[in-house]
Amino acid sequence: MPMSDATLNPSSRYFVREHHPENGTLLGFWIYLMSDCLIFAVLFATYAVLGRNYAGGPTGAELFDLKLVALNTSMLLLSSITYGFAMLEAGRKRLGATMGWLIVTGLFGAAFISLELYEFVHLLHENAGPQRSAFLTSFWSLVATHGLHVTFGIVWLITLLFQLKKHGLTHENMRRLTCLSMFWHFLDVVWIGVFTFVYLMGVLP
Questions:
Q1: Is residue 86 pLDDT above 80, yes or no?
Q2: What are the residue boundaries of the Heme-copper oxidase subunit III family profile domain, all occurrences included (predicted)?
Q3: What pTM was estimated for this model as a whole?
Q4: Residue 139 burial (CB < 10 Å; 0-12/13-18/19+)?
Q5: What separation in angstroms does the CA of 177 have from each of 13, 17, 90, 162?
Q6: HSE-up of residue 173 (Cα within 13 Å, Cβ side)
Q7: All structural domains of the chain
């Protein structure tokens, strides 16, 4: 009587599967956010040191339009709220509502980037590029780095929308939603620091 493959090779009776530690992705993402905190901490510290070195050029009080920046800030704050609504709907397993709130979040994020680009174009028109003074170098480095993060967040959000449409609210997609939520709220907190430390304090004499 012929022997089966399992008899010839006892190890074939055991299933081998990749071990993925529970909450390992979230832990790794927290570590990434901490490294991002260090990057922004360095940029804030650089601005604190160089923020008053105008080299005879324009100051923040001469350049900043607080009404425009306040409108831009409201766009990002609203996007954080709508992402919270998306997470609530995801918890209720409502795919359509989740995707709808994510789309609204992406639109608010796109509005934020558009207003920021408008501000950058205006600064360049006023000959206030990053090479003009140490103040502007530190300003552009901090604000542009944050804007680049928001842009990456929007790309990530669009990618996640396609994954949700194809696979639904699976365990993997819920984990991705959670990671993007952490990233998005982190950028919101950083921008509050930028708005207060750079723009509000920048218009003071």
A1: yes
A2: 1-203
A3: 0.87
A4: buried
A5: 37, 25, 9, 12
A6: 21
A7: 64-199 (1.20.120.80)
